[in-house]
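Lab notebook page, bench 4
Experiment: in silico fold of construct C2
Operator: M.H.
Input chain length: 395 residues
Purpose: comparison with the prior construct
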Amino acid sequence: MSFRPAAVGWLPVLVCLSALLAHPSSAAESGQIITMGPKAQGNAALTVSTVQSGALGKTLEAMGTVTSEASRIVRLHPAGSGKVLHIAVVPGQHVRKGDVLLTYQDHALHLVRLEMARAQSALATAQAAYQNAAAAHDRGRLLAGSTVSEGENKRRLAAFQAAKSDIIARQADVDTLTHQLREEYNSVTESDRVQTSRSDETSAIIAPAAAEVQNISVGVADDVSPATELMTLSDISSVWIISDILPQDAAQVAEGSEQTTELVSDTGTTLLKSQITSVGDVADPATGLVRVISTVPNPDGRLRPGMFLNTHLPAQGKTTGIVVPESAVMDINGISIVFIPVGPDRFRPQEVRVSGTSNGQKVITSGLSAGERIVTHGAFALKEVMLVSDSDDGD
């Protein structure tokens, strides 16, 4: 029985809040005055400024999608053939340059090492033959004209030169295999550092740069070869923001101009600047829209592929009106208002019409005149006071 009065007591508050949400401009229309003392104004860093007429470049509002740059997507393949031993990462994981991503038993490495052993043995045999041929040639020159005929000396010289050429050929075989082991099985994407002995055939696939693992295409014990795509990495230190707009709007956007993108977080909205690198000439048959691409640095990884963000694309032409800082305009359920001082510590909300936003400024085309004074910083605090006041009045 004790619950009924509590429910009745809250009813006026709920009705008041519902009315406020349904008619957010009621405060401006009713001439409500917001009072805020000097101390509260100081805490809010409230600033009042005189506004003037001006013009802002026109902008097109669009939804942007964060996408990995095509040139920064790395598809990893093994240098040899074998079986996957261990996968050290999962999709979505961030990795650093040189991190081990996957290890596999490289059968091709075993064959290369066998070829190296044969090449080194052949080189040693050639070197021994060369020493013998050199000694025989030297003796022939000392005994020339006595016990060794001129014809025998020529034969020994030919054998000496052939042995020398054979050493060069065998050394080239060894050098080729050494280069293959050093460069092909040790590169920006593969390393033999996980091996524990000369007979160990384990090879590691490593990250060529700081990146994010996009997908993994193999599992443990799978057979792999140089044609097998093991996984895909995406270097997101720089990303694309792709905006799809109407063809008639695309004609107003120029490559090289600066795009602004809103990144919303718990600490507020950050405006990201990026250069438009591409404006499509052909509309997508499925959507009828033209694709605009801009490139934005992303050193801290805040922009993740797949995110949707509000973007502002610069267009030809300008919008004239009263230019104010963005911080001066508050939005309540789609209604834009500014606060006008009407006396010491007293402010009146005024509904306005915003027709453009650019570089942290807004252009107001109705509801405000040049020379008027408005709150240009700290308006958010006044908005909160206004909402609380409305709630209290309806309680």
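Observations: The longest helix spans residues 107-142. Residues 1-25 have pLDDT under 50 and may be disordered.
Next step: discuss at group meeting.
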